[in-house]
Amino acid sequence: MSQSHVIQLGLVQHACSSDVKANVDKAVKMIRDAAKRGARVIATQELFAGTYFCQIEDDARFALAEPIPGPTSQRLSDLAKELGIYITASLFERRTAGIYHNTSVMLSPSGELVGKYRKMHIPDDPRFYEKYYFTPGDLGWQTQNLTLDKSNPVTTGMLVCWDQWYPEAARLTAMRGAQVLFYPTAIGWYHGETPEDRKQQREAWHTIQRSHAIANGVYVAAINRVGVEEDLEFWGGSFVCDPGGVVIAEASRENEEALVVECDLSRIEAIRKGWPFFRDRRIDAYSPITQRFLD
Which CATH architecture has domain 6-290? Predict the structure, then answer.
């Protein structure tokens, strides 16, 4: 039997206003709370420093972007060093004039930037006009080898929101050794949707991420925001599921919450012995996957 290998994750879910300082202050306070309760790897929701600005196309909103390193990433870097934890945060990155990204970073207990991922899949839908703001990511699929202590390492992968609908993204990140996939997200309903539509959409969001956990034998952590912003009502419900797809912890659908979740990484090997999906992959037959569509 595999030896227990337990880590504590923290998921920080909150509402946002147009006051960036207030949002970051709130997140910092919640990160401190999660760390105090034992979390060693703590994740923010998508674009946590502000409101979800992509609901309209407005060039004035590019002013919200920051370089990385920059003021917000530096503040979190200092916090990670102070608390002796890892923090993964989702930021609006200004790379250079005219090039902006939706970017996640991983900050170490020494305050170093040890991982950076730029969102690869960019949506363009009513109220989610992300193609106007974000250049598609060019850093590829990555993992970060985190050392909580000498006997307690964990390998993580950072993906972002719309990436969660693509099994290829989860698979390639897991193939690089990720044991935990983080999906910071900003997802909700617009005011005109029916109760039936709302139920279907939320269940689809839940199901697709649980399926990534099952298909790859990994933990999945999804971090969403709450509150009403312009035309969207965000549904919260941040959660962690285990390598069998079982939801082991879930946050409120309406309230702000710092969710702390214990994950036993030995479950990965146990699950993969029973469901050896990596062993049975027919890699000789998958070359058509690189085509847009098989006409």
Answer: 4-Layer Sandwich (3.60)
